[in-house]
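Input record (one chain):
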Amino acid sequence: MPSRLSFPSDMAALRALCHDLPPPDGAARSAITHRDSQLTKPPGSLGRLEELACWAGEWQHTAHPRAERVDIIVFAGNHGVTAQGVTPWPTDVTHQMVLNFRNGGAAINQIARVAAARLHVVEVQELRPTADLTHAAAMDETTFIQAIHTGMRAVRPDTDLLCLGEMGIGNTTPAAAIAAALFGGGGIKWAGRGTGLDDAGVRHKAEVIDRALIHHGNTLDDPLEVARRLGGHELAAILGATIAARYMNIPVLVDGYICTAALAPLQQINPQGLAHTRLSHCSAEGGHSHLAAALGMEPLLDLRLRLGEGSGAGLAVPLVRAAVACLCGMATFAQAQVSDRR
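The corresponding structure, as predicted from the sequence alone:
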């Protein structure tokens, strides 16, 4: 790992790590922009692919970005708030789905195979549930920092592109609670159907979120306290992985609502905290589009997904690969002996 990346020992050290994030490589961006202007196409004609190529290069610190070694990491965790009836599914399903991932039977296994990506599944805190966030902090400081470390350790330095996903029954409730704490609007703005709630269930989830916001009160002025008190083990691991990727010069594709909520505190601490990430898709889960807009993140895809598992991030991998291939593989006007515009 680069020498600047250290494992934080406490909340103060984590906050300092978030403030001191390395910047992109301006020289790489300039070189990529210059090459793009010479390629055999009208300026801007590849749209967001041009921006993706530049993004990949400036964060990999090279004018010749790569997208061969892609990792998809799915972090799994359980949530004490399920005791409040916010989901119709039992928490046993989290462990059962982890086994399904490892046996190759889930959607993300198929998407990872098609994307030629390495899939890793990490059970955070051995799937022990967090505390019920309606009457206690989801994690004490020690457990929160441990989950951050789990995410950091999961990132491999040889990765060209990192995709982040999650699995955790009930985890749309902490995601919505984080969004409500950071951006206001109460539970009703941010609560969605999750894994199959009806209208009454959504209203109940919103009420549970509002109770949690009232319980934690003024402690939620601190974005890291929001993540600790209202989040989950897998959400903290996602945050840790994203921080580690920044220090390792690895661009990150973010999945849906839960992953976006997990990272929202980082941007509240550091306005450039998510600059090395791109939002893969807009989830059909209520509130994700509002959260993406609040963070200034424009999704690459909108396929009405609401599965999680890193599925949207995996589906966006070919877009990044195409962007890099066009930048590095296309001929310039001079090489192709094609007349440039006058």
